[in-house]
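worker-3 :: picked S41 family peptidase
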Amino acid sequence: MSDVLLVRDLVERLTGWLPRLMPPGARRDALVAVLTDRFAAVDTPVTAAGCAAIERCAWTVSRHLALTFEPGGTGRPDTEPPGWPDPDPDVVRARAACVSQVRRTADGTCLISVDDLDAVGLAQPYLDAAFTLAQGSARVLLDLRANGGGDPATVAHIAGRLLGDTPAQLSEVVYPDRRRQWWTPALPTGTSLRQPVAVLVGPGTFSSGEALAYHLQARGRAVVVGETTPGAADHITPIRLAPTVLAFLPEAYVVDSVTGTNWEGKGVVPDVVSPPGTVIETAVTALG
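worker-3 :: tokens ->
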């Protein structure tokens, strides 16, 4: 049984990584403490259910921590952060960079659904096409209800198409050893959309999807309609903790340049609450 990974051992590895990855502070310390207190004496083998229990405990402090249990996994545990793998261009093109819908309705509304945020270098042509089709519409509904997040550069690109042609700072991302600012791009005069905008959100809006909604709401550019989002404001990185467990652990947090804070643990709270079944009609009414 010596080769069986126990929950306490997995959590010891996890909490060993957190001080290496996260910026120092009360939240990092609290995350390590809550996981240690809960699981230090748990000597049962790691299972999918055990990973889920660790996640739920971590979410009380950091909503963006995930563990994937891979029973047949054979990968070697990481000793250094490997970073994110490069995206597969063919996969991104096959799904049109997750621009799943662009639709104009009889009342002049343009509905754009973006279900994830692929790397901006690959996603930009599809996003630009969607926003070009929105030119001349009466209003824009940006549907992020299925958006699980992705590239912050893609957040900045979409935000720029709605905030204006002149670059504007969206956020600063704080790492243990550096800070990175995110700005909207400079656009040719007249490129950005000026019509009223509503952003549709819900429980499926996560991470960078939440960031996009939050930044637009904070600047008064969009009415947010729907249900409160989960509240994941950390940037994460993949770490293999064991052959059978791949973790996605926080390595930085976001500070919005307008509010000076973020949506961690609180979620993006809609300006207008609406159940999914009537959210489009509610958003059109909210915009007038």
